Amino acid sequence: MPPSITQEKVEQAIGILEEQEIDLWLTFVRETSASGDPVLPLIYGDADLTWQSALILTRTGEGIAIVGRFDAETARSLGAYESVIGYDESLRVELLPILERLDPGRIALNYSTDDVLADGLSHGLYRLLMGYLHDTPFASRIVSAEKVISALRGRKTPGEIARIKSAVETTRQIYERTFSYVQPGMTEIEIGEFMQEQLDAFGVDAAWHAGHCPTVNAGPDSPVGHVGRSEQSIQRGQLLHFDFGVRQDDYCSDIQRVVYLLARGESKPPEPVQRAFDTVARAVQAAVYAIKPGVLGKEVDVAARSVITGAGYPEYKYATGHQLGRLAHDGGGILGPAWERYGDSPHQTLEAGQVYTVEPGLAVPGYGYIGLEEDVLVTGTGAEYLGAPQRELVLR
Fold this sequence. Notes:
By secondary structure, the protein is of the alpha+beta class. Helix content is 33%, strand content 20%.
């Protein structure tokens, strides 16, 4: 039987600890149904933890779970932790002897100033843990687990990549059905409802909040962004833009597509629309060509952004791409500009196994918005699309 995603990720985490010279990684949580650490689905699956719990991984390969007695059997069933300790009265009584035996020089905890997905340790739990470690040498050995978690989320295992590919394929099929369904005069709400019916038909969920998944932009007067659908209708001679993804087997896709509704007497899009589409498509290709291990995210952003601005269009005011996985926005590194609001994220290097979106865009006055978004895998030598990219305008 192949390993579960949780088993794959725990094994992967141990290798990352060795690589980063972190002796011990401690994930400290409680009542995760109310306030879960974002890393838990990777290293503990979908189960909840109730009492104070410590999930310990070491660079030497040990996996130890200290959990409330009534959670112990679930922890054992994961097959990811060789030692599961159930306690009744005090986690500290079990934790301190383990730390004394292992005597780790560097202990990574889940806090971060830049990466929300590595910032799962609450301030209250941090203070509680520091109280446990008071008068021990371990309190002075604490470091951030940000780079550990970033690597773990980013480097997709074969099982994770297979699930993302399946989500991308399902998204393609829903788009194809939608393109056949769309007619002039339909509203954004009507089109969005059809796409949500397809989610049900395929037995999958929206990749983000269903109120704006899909985002549907009909024509030039529809606001672009993380917005809900409106009664705005699509007319001939206008662009119809989509931002949509599915969550399938816990993993997401995130894809944008563009349709042009031919005006009466037109057999092809007008020159401003075609030129804009071709420019965005070239920007996507430039970014994908620039993607390879060791490149900085901001360098990929420049490759795409310069195509847009070099063609005389204003630059888009967002990052060229983000990581994709269990969440539509998944991981610390981005393909983005070195703007203050992005912190360290654009300065991180790309690694094989990461999955990124690539999503430049621009507005075409009088017609609407053109945004393309492709999901790509960083390989050992470059990048590959996880689904067929949109190379031509869909015409209706």
